[in-house]
Fold:
Amino acid sequence: MSPMRNITILGATGSIGLSTLDVIRRHPDRFSVHALAANTRVAEMAALCREFQPSCAVMADAKAADALAATLSDLPHITVLQGEAGLCEVASAAEVDTVMAAIVGAAGLPPTLSAVRAGKRVLLANKEALVMSGQLFMDAVAESGAELLPIDSEHNAIFQCMPADRVRDPGGAGITRILLTASGGPFREHSQDELRSVSPAQACAHPNWSMGQKISVDSATLMNKGLELIEACWLFNTDPSRIEVHVHPESIIHSMVEYADGSVLAQLGSPDMRTPIANGLAWPERIDAGVAPLDLFAIGRFHFERPDLDRFPCLQLAADAFKAGGTAPAVLNAANEEAVAAFLAGNLGFTDIPVIIRQVLAATDVVPAASFETIFAKDAEARRLAREQIRLLVV
Ligand code: NAD
Ligand code: MG
Structure:
C-alpha cells in the first residue's frame, strides 16, 4: 500500500487547483487535503471546503477570509487563515508532505518558497516563481532536500523522458537537446495587422487547453513559451542553446528529449493537465487521472513549425532576459504581469504587451539576484515602470 499523502493546494480555486482536486477526488485512499488556499473567490472556496473537509482554508485577501469564516461557521474544525502569512503557514505545516504550487504569478513565490524551505514534495505549476528567482530557488531546493516535481505539461514530459536520477545532469545522461513543444496559441496564423485588434476574449479562447486568463494570454503572445524556456533551464540545469522550441499545433506531444545516439523520446497525451498533475501526485507510481485514452487515429497527423519571433517577440525577450541574468527575468515577469493585466482590463492592445516589456527592461539596470529581497524590490520597480508606460500609451 502506498502511504497516504497529506496535501496543501495553493491556488485551489484556479484551473490547476480544480484539476488537482479532481485527481484527488478519485483517490480517497491515497490523498487527503490539509489545506486549500485562494485569493478572493469565497463561494467557490466554501464549496470546496465542504467537499474536501481540509483542516485549514486560506484566503490571501483579508476581507475574503472574514467572509469565508462567516460562511463556514458551522464547520468549526476548519481553521480560516489569511494573507501571505497564512499561505506560508499551510505551505510549510508539519502535517503536510505535498504542496501543489498553483497560484498564478509572482504572488506565488513566498508560499512556494516556504514549502521548498520546509523540504516538502513541491508540485510546481507556478512557473513565475522559478522564473523570478531561478538560482536562489534551486539553491533553496538543494539545501532543504525538497522534492521538486514539474507540473507544467512540457516540463513534466521532459522529466518523464529523462532518467530519474539525471534530471539535473542531462549532459551526463547523454542528452543533447530538449525539444520544447508549443501549441502556437490562438493567433498562430494571424498577421501582424490582425494581431493589433485581437480582444481579451479571443486571446483567452485557447484552441487546445482550458486555462486561467493570465496563462492563456501568455500562450497567445508566446511569453508562456519564453517563461517555460527559462523554467526548463533551471529545472534541468541546462542553457537555451540546448533547447529548441517546436510549434506543434495539435498539443499531443508535450515535449521531447534527444539523446546522443539519435534517439528522441517523447511523452504524448491528451491536452489535459490532470495527466502531469497525477504524475506528480503519485510519483513514481502511476494512477488513474480521469483522462480519456489518446485516440491517435482520430488525430491523424502531427505538424511542426518554427516559432515566428517577428509576430511573437515575447519569446525572444524572455531568452534575452535569461541571458542577461541577475534580476532581468524577474523584471521581465513583472512587466509581463502588469501588461497582461492591462490588456485583460481593456487598457492595452495585444501588440503593446511586448512593447511595454521591452521598455521596462531597457529602463531597469540588471543587478545580481543576490537575495530574495533584491528580487522583490526589482519586481516592485518593474511594476511601477510598467504602469507608467501603460498610462503613457493609453493617453
Ligand atoms: P487561475 O487564474 O485559473 O488560478 C489562479 C489561482 O491562484 C486561483 O486559485 C487564485 O485564487 C489564486 N491566486 C491568484 N492570486 C493570488 C494571490 N495574490 N494570493 C493567493 N492566491 C492567489 O490560473 P491557472 O491557470 O490555474 O494557473 C496557475 C499557475 O499554473 C500559473 O502559474 C500558470 O502559469 C501555471 N500553469 C497553468 C496551466 C494550466 O493549464 N492552467 C498549465 C501549466 C502551468
Ligand atoms: Mg506549459
The two ends are 63 Å apart (CA to CA). The CA atoms of residues 8 and 132 lie 22 Å apart. The chain has a mean pLDDT of 97.
